[in-house]
Every structure is written in C-alpha cells, then in structure tokens.
Design brief:
The complex is a heterodimer of chains A (429) and B (143).
Chain A: H1 6-13, H2 18-34, E1 39-41, E2 44-47, H3 54-59, H4 67-75, E3 90-93, H5 110-125, E4 129-130, E5 150-151, H6 154-162, H7 173-182, E6 184-186, E7 200-208, H8 211-225, E8 230-236, H9 241-254, E9 261-262, H10 272-276, E10 283-287, H11 289-299, E11 310-318, H12 320-330, E12 340-345, H13 347-355, H14 358-365, E13 368-371, H15 375-378, E14 387-390, H16 393-403, E15 406-409, H17 412-421
Parallel strand pairs in A: 2-3, 2-5, 3-4, 7-8, 7-10, 8-9, 11-12, 11-14, 12-13, 14-15
Antiparallel strand pairs in A: 1-6
Chain B: E1 10-13, E2 15-18, E3 21-29, E4 33-34, E5 39-40, E6 45-46, E7 62-65, E8 68-69, H1 74-83, E9 90-93, H2 98-107, E10 111-113, E11 128-132, E12 137-141
Helix pairs in contact in B: 1-2
The chains are: A alpha/beta (429), B alpha/beta (143).
C-alpha cells in the first residue's frame, strides 16, 4: 500500500500546479504497479525529457505537435497539455539523436536537425543540462555514494549502482521526466539495502584484464543471470573506469543487470560475504576458456564477410583514454578506401580530445569523432554499410538487429586494423 | 449480453497492475524481452537476433513473457507501440522490474503479475486468454 507524505499529497491534488499533479499521477500508477510503499526524494535525474522525432510530434498534432505537447502527453502520459515548469535540482538530458555539427554525415535532413535544435533549446530553457551522453558520470554528473538517483540508460544505471554505490533503478523516459518535476521516484528495488545484495557467484578462471575481455565477461554473465545480481571473483584485474563501462554495458544488454559486485573492487563488496550479506547463493557460475570461446562466437554470429566497410567505436561513449588509443593507432595512417570510422563520445570528452589534438589526428586519417548519439541510438550508419566492426559487446548486440547488417566483435586494435585494411582479421587469442 | 461458453476456463489469479479487460490469443515466451533494440514498435515485432520469438508480432495478443531486459527505452518502445496501434492487447509477466512496471503503465494494456500458479504451466501460444487487470484475474481456454 503506497503512502504519501503531505507534500506528495499536495502535488497529487494539484496544489503545486498541473505539471506536478500529472507527474505525481504517473508516478503513483507506476509505484503501485511495482508494489512500492513510499517514494524517495531524488535530486539527480537523468533522462531524455521531451525530445522527439517528427513522427512522435505528429501523434500530438491536435495539441500543437510541439515540445510541450510531447512532454505532457508522452513523457507524463497525461490526458491534457499544460506548461512545464523550469526544473530545480540536477536534471540532465542523456544521449540524443544527432551530432550538432556532423548531422549531415549521419544522414539527417536540415528539417530533422532544426527539430533537434528546437528540442535542445526547449530542454535548456527548462534548466535541464544537455549532457547529451550515455556516460553522464564522465561528463560532470557523478553521484555520491548512497545518493538516490533516477536515471535512464542501462549502462549508466549499472555503473551508478555498482561502481559509484549510488542508487537507481533502470528508470524510463516517462518516470525520469516526472521525477524531474516532482523530485520523487518509487522507493523500490535498488533504493533499498536488501535489494542490493548478490544472487549468483561468478568464478572467473581466465584472465579478464582489458575492455575486450571485460566486455565478453559481462555479456556472458548477463545472459545467465538476466536481471539478478552477480558477484564476481577470481582472475579479474585492471577494473578501471573504461573496463567497467564496457563490462556493465554488456551485462545490461544480454541480460538486465542493474548492479554487480566485484569482490575487493566495488564499494559494497570489500569481501565476498559482504556482497551476499547472508543471502543464500542461488548459483555458482564458472567463466573459463570454454565460456569465453562461446561468448566470442555468439558475439560474432552475425559476421560472415570479412570486407569491413564501417568501424564504430565509443559504445558506451568513449573516454578520453580511448580516443587517445585510437589516435595513437591511426597517427600517420590512412583509412582503407571504402571503410568509414566513426568514434562516438560526449561533448565534454570531445572538447578535451580536440584540445589534445586527437580529433585532428583521427580526422587526418579519415575518421570522425562524433557526439550526442551513436549508430544504434540514431540508427545511422554510413551509406551502404553491409559489414561493421565493433569493440563493444553492447553495440554488437544491438546494431546488427537494428540495421540488418553483419557485424564483427573484437579488440579496439582489431577494429582500427579493419579500418586501415578494410579486412576483418580479428580472432580469439 | 455475455456469450455462454461450453468449456470452463482455467483461472489464474494475480495482482492486477494496469486495469481494463481484454481477450485475445496468447503469445508466450519464457524468455525476457528487450524493448529498445529488441522490438520494432511500428510493427510490434520482436527483432532481437537470438530471441525465440524473432520475427513474430505481439500486436493485439495477450503477451505472456518472463520480464523485461536491456535498455531503459523499454517503456518508451511499448508506449510507441500503443501510439502505432500495435501494442499487446494485454500483458502478463512474472519477473517484476522497473522497466516492465513502467512499460505496462504507459502501454495502458490490462496487465497482471504475481500469479498464484505458474502461468507458463497453463498458457501456451494460441490459447484464448481473457485478462481482467482491475481484478487480477486471467481466464484461459486451451486451444
């Protein structure tokens, strides 16, 4: 039975305006569906408020077909249209539809660009930060330990819970837009201590030490544990920001992993016992050479032709170190004729990469560093792409399904080699 | 006037989380469903490469599935499918997640979860199923 505070009741009754009333109505329906008993307050909300392709705007033509109509009727699932208040607190916009400068290369029309710009201006005028990235924790929004958040973006959610020890469920567009207005989200799931304990023990028997290996491990674990919590122990090393970004993203794609514990690494798992907190271990999962090979083969199931015409890096959005690696491998070389290279990152990281000269090195070789989006989100690939090469298990999971293309998964070096030679030569060492 | 039926349905009770009543053919998967990247919301079709329902549409069906996985775009994709007129007629799922709960709410399809018996032991693809999301009652007529 959901109980409301007096302030929440006031919002629900309309005392704080129509937007708060409708946002609370949606959150109450959602909390009841979950079986939540109360809300928590949140001041850190990451979503995609109000952003819409023309198709979605056209669904609300009778209501003006604009940002406001989409925010009210789609985001808040309301039956009427009203003004959206300027947000207070830390509200940010995650990845969006297109690069603000390279949108033509991504295949967008000037009308689509104008629409995206208009949405961005509306978002900014509501005091929502346009971080435009799936990695807000790399672009100025790094919640503190224990902080209640309401975040979208499964790869950011799993990072937020597991690595930062902050607390969020995998929220959706509608719940985050409502939370930006009300500063409330259901007190359910990862907001609660007992929900954050481990379910399965994963014992790693092969060395897992770089983004390629961490990505495969995440992909393997996600498929087995689905939305439950794995506790990983064994031959894991180099569990840095980039490696965990790839690991979590993969586990949240093949399954629905929203939190994991790495024994001795992540903040809620100093030792194995602490990660399980007395809970019975549901299963023991081994990750050895056979499991690693099977995972590699699964990820390469859509690879047939070795003629690669597109290499995409930056899923989740590249950190500065990854752009540096790409620039180092490309420096002084030229891409194969007929093979494109797009590297995706946040505006924040691109600015750093630009200042360091990496963007120019990559451009000189024939590649592009893009922001705001990625090929899967934008459903945008270079014209005529038939075969892609990727270093992200998550992107490999999604992109071929979206675009009906073949794809290879390998190391960042395999991918850059394919961009330079036009041939896929990756194999499992 | 309700039509009387000669065959008695099997009744499953659960917790209704989105009210409304719908009756349609069942589409069943014991697998979880990925929304964004796993469903084409304009056709209501499962597109995930290695999913057992790949190529099949849930439009107008009573969709019984294990739960939601993958991207946080889950709710928006099912929300889009409602706008496109290809949402499931009703939803039944067993694993509660934020994605599935919010998705059901914004899809406006009658939805039941937390069942008294395992729905997978009763409902198969093609069965006739009536879902009352307000009462949390699911009636099943075998094919």
């Amino acid at each position: 039975m959901l109980r409301l505070t007096s302030e929440e009741e006031a919002m629900a009754s309309g005392a704080h305006g129509k937007a708060a009333e409708k946002a609370m109505d949606l959150l109450i329906r959602y909390a009841n569906a979950l079986g939540a008993e109360r809300f928590v307050e949140t001041n850190n909300v990451a979503g995609v408020p109000g952003s819409a392709h023309q198709w979605l705007k056209d669904q609300y033509k009778d209501d003006g077909g604009d940002y406001r109509a989409v925010f009210c009727k789609f985001d808040l699932d309301a039956d009427e249209v009203f003004d959206i208040p300027v947000m207070t607190g830390n509200a940010c916009h995650l990845q969006g539809g297109m690069d603000p400068e390279l949108w033509r290369e991504q295949g967008y029309s000037s009308e689509a660009f104008a629409n995206a710009q208009s949405d961005e201006n509306n978002t900014a005028s509501l005091n929502i930060r346009n971080l435009k990235t799936c990695t807000p924790y790399l672009a100025g929004n790094e919640p503190k330990f224990g902080e209640h958040c309401a975040w979208m973006e499964s790869s950011a959610v799993v990072y937020c819970n597991s690595v930062l020890g902050a607390r969020t469920n995998t929220e959706g567009r509608e719940s985050t837009s409502a939370a930006m207005i009300t500063h409330r989200i259901p007190d359910w799931g990862f907001h609660r201590d007992e929900f954050r304990l481990g379910d399965h023990l994963v014992e790693v028997d092969v060395p897992v030490n770089d983004i390629f290996e961490w990505g495969m491990l995440g992909y393997y674990i996600g498929e087995i544990v689905q939305e439950e919590i794995p506790v990983i122990d064994g031959a894991i090393s180099n569990a840095g920001l980039i490696e965990l970004k790839h690991f979590g993203a993969a586990a949240a794609s093949s399954g629905g992993v929203e939190m994991y514990h790495l024994v001795g690494v992540t903040p809620e798992a100093p030792v194995r016992e602490k990660a399980f907190g007395g809970k019975t271990i549901k299963s023991r999962i081994r990750y050895g050479a056979d499991e690693r090979k099977k995972t590699y083969d699964n990820l390469n199931i859509r690879g047939k032709s070795t003629d690669v015409d597109y290499v995409m890096l930056g899923c989740p959005h590249a950190a500065i170190e990854q752009i540096e690696t790409a620039a180092r491998l490309l420096d002084g070389n030229k891409l194969n004729d007929g093979t494109a290279l797009w590297i995706f990152t946040s505006r924040y990281v691109r600015a750093q990469a630009q200042a360091k000269g990496y963007v120019d090195v990559i451009k000189k070789a024939g590649g592009l560093v893009m922001t705001d989006t990625c090929s899967a989100i934008a459903q945008s690939i270079p014209k005529g792409t038939k075969v892609a090469a990727l270093d992200s298990a998550k992107q490999t999971h999604y992109l071929p399904a979206f675009m009906g293309i073949e794809a290879w998964f390998g190391t960042t070096e395999d991918c850059i080699n394919a961009a330079l030679s036009g041939k896929w030569q990756g194999e499992l060492s | 006037m309700s039509v009387s039926r000669l065959d008695e349905p099997i009744i499953i009770r659960g917790r209704g989380i989105v009210s409304g009543v719908a009756e349609a053919q069942a589409l069943v998967t014991r697998e979880t469903i990925s929304g964004w990247g796993g469903v084409n919301p304009m056709k209501g079709e499962i597109i995930e490469t290695r999913h057992e329902l790949v190529g099949q549409s849930f439009a107008g069906k009573v969709l019984l599935f294990r739960g939601a996985k993958g991207s946080s775009g889950w709710s928006a994709i099912f929300h889009f499918s409602r706008l496109a007129g290809v949402a499931p007629a009703a939803m039944l799922f067993v694993d509660m997640t934020a994605k599935a709960a919010l998705g059901a709410v914004v899809t406006h399809a009658p939805t039941v979860t937390d069942f008294d018996i395992d729905p997978f032991s009763v409902i198969e693809t093609g069965d006739r199923v009536r879902v009352d999301g307000g009462k949390g009652v699911v009636e099943v007529w075998k094919r």
